[in-house]
Amino acid sequence: MAYVVTQVFSPKDKWKKVTKQIKEQILQRMIVNLSSLAGDNRVQLIAAGQIDGKIPRVVDFEFYVVWSVELSEMSKHITQHLRESEWNEYFEVVNIGGSALSIPQFADLVLADLDAE
User: Fold this and answer.
1) What is each CA distance from 12 to 44, 61, 88, 96, 112, in whole angstroms?
2) What is the pLDDT of residues 64-84, one digit of tens each?
3) What is the pTM of this model?
4) 68 with 100: CB under 8 angstroms?
5) Side-chain half-sphere of 68: how many Cα atoms within 13 Å?
6) What are 35-38's contacts with CB under 8 Å, separation 24+?
7) 28 or 1, which is more confident?
8) Which of 12, 15, 49, 85 is deepest in the core (most CB within 10 A)?
């Protein structure tokens, strides 16, 4: 069963103050670090983009990335690579992860939580 990691992030003031050249260097380090994981087929990028602020109950972040990984341990490698690329110094990041479930499995999980009340 796959493990899914979702990250939402927005630039910090520090990012807004650096030159375009430094931004390109930081992005290049992040791409190289994460591409090494993808190249080994340890992670798969599902989607990345800008968060649509028009959807109901949207989070207060600007961008998102969704990864699929074979083991939950791999999510630690994703966050490690982002730290090594200095990403966390320039962006406020929230990481969310969990096992990918089918709709019936998800329904059972939600119902089990309701039974606990």
Assistant:
1) 27, 11, 9, 20, 39
2) 988 888 766 666 777 777 777
3) 0.76
4) yes
5) 9
6) 36/81, 37/74, 37/77, 37/78, 37/81
7) 28
8) 85
Residue position matching structure tokens 């968060």:
51
The residue written with tokens 């109901």 in the block is 56
Q: Which residues of 52-75 are buried (b: 16+ CB within 10 A; e: fewer)?
A: eeeeeeeeebeebbbbebeeeebb
The C-alpha atoms of residue 11 and residue 33 are separated, in whole angstroms, by 19
**pLDDT for 37-64, tens place per residue?**
666 666 788 888 999 988 888 788 999 9
Other beta carbons within 10 angstroms of residue 34's beta carbon come to 20
